[in-house]
Design brief:
With about 450 residues, this protein is α/β, with parallel strands linked by helices. The protein folds into 2 domains: about 350 residues, Alkaline Phosphatase, subunit A, CATH 3.40.720.10; about 80 residues, 2-Layer Sandwich (Arylsulfatase, C-terminal domain). The strands form 2 sheets. Strands 1, 2, 3, 4, 5, 6, 7, 8, 9, 10 and 11 form an 11-stranded mixed β-sheet that branches. The longest helix is centred in the middle third of the chain and has 22 residues. The protein starts with 7 loop residues before the first strand and ends in a 19-residue tail after the last helix. Bound molecules: calcium ion.
Amino acid sequence: MSKQPRPNIVFIVADNLGWGDLSCYGGVTPTPRIDKLAAEGVRFTNYTVESQCTPTRSAILTGRQSVRSGTYRVTSPGLAPWEYTLANLLSDAGYATSLWGKWHLGDVEGRLPTDQGFDEWWGYRNSVDEAGYTTYAAYNAIAKAQGLETPKLWEGKRGEKSVAVCELDMKVRPRLDELIVEKAADFIRRAADGEKPFFTYIAFSHIHPPERAHPDFDQTDPKRLGMYADILAEVDYRVGQLVDAVEQAGIADDTIIVFSSDNAAWPEGGFGGSNGPWRGHFFTPPAEGCMRVPAVLRCPKPAPAGLVTDEMFSAHDWYKTFAALAGAADRIPTDRPIDGVDASGFLLGEAEHTGREAILFFGPDGSLMSVKRGNIKVWYYYSEGLEQPIVAPQFPLVFDLGSDPGETTPLFGSKMDVGWMMALVAGYVREYRRSLTRYPNIKPGEEFAGYPSPAVD
Ligand SMILES: [Ca+2]
């Protein structure tokens, strides 16, 4: 029985989980709960994110390329309060909203989750890197001498100042996702009893270094040999706990559950992970292994079940899609470029395509690194690793992902008859560049107040 005409949204995002990590994507560590979610819903095999944590989270919450918002790298000061986040939009449409776990879109008052449309939050302002700071005697000595605030976990409610609740350190690290899921499940239970539909954004700390396995998963199964596999097993279990919370609250028929990742794994870093058959990793933009990650979701019936699709879909597309599913498409701002498409028809089984035909991929320096349209992929810039520069080839590199998923053989050098492919994707580049004359990109940290209205131009 449907209490709500509008669906609840449980949006779970893992940190640095690769395309090939889940068993439903061919991974070797079993992830039965996530696989079941996919089997009951949709599994995207061609889901694209941005190059790092902050950019993808910015894209999810604004529907915009992060380069437009000045959030194209992890050191960004975060989203300008002017941005109208998915939480703002759904909140204005009558949703209860909450965020649990990682934020990473601004660490100062005025740019925290409760300043950006969330009713409540609990988690950390930046990245879990900071959990490792206090393991250094030197850091502790400097923090003490200079009166620096050590990394903290925070909580806040809309209209109130966020407060630090405890240290973010390696003692709490193994239990972080247990705590995140406890808080999120409690919210789901409370919201299920409330009058409003809800949107909850649950950002796991796994699988981002510094890592430490939870005691319940730390070499507790003889089939698992290492920490990455132990943590993957935990990620799966935590997703299961959230699915159970939804089902036990009796709202499964009214609730969309999404599980995805924010960026690729970094197996070359020595810790583990798999980006499947795709070339490269977290630090090799714009290789496919850097931008393509898992995304599965389950929509209320009669949406498709067990659909595996190679339709293009991107982090930017949740915004318009959720707005449409919430019946709030009229709240999508018209005073700024929104790059996402509305794929609600596809998710409900009413349309054959998502509506996304191409994706522009920007690097951590804000440069337009590549365009992908179906299996045609064109690189304008690339990097071969964390310690390598971003360079421009003499000619753009053209790949056919259908024949060459590993992007091993640029076609121009071998065939030379691919100019039409370059011309085809150049149209999307021109369209983006044209938008900049009317809507220049916001600079990182800029106190942006809005674009002049057309009448003023
Ligand atoms: Ca990440």
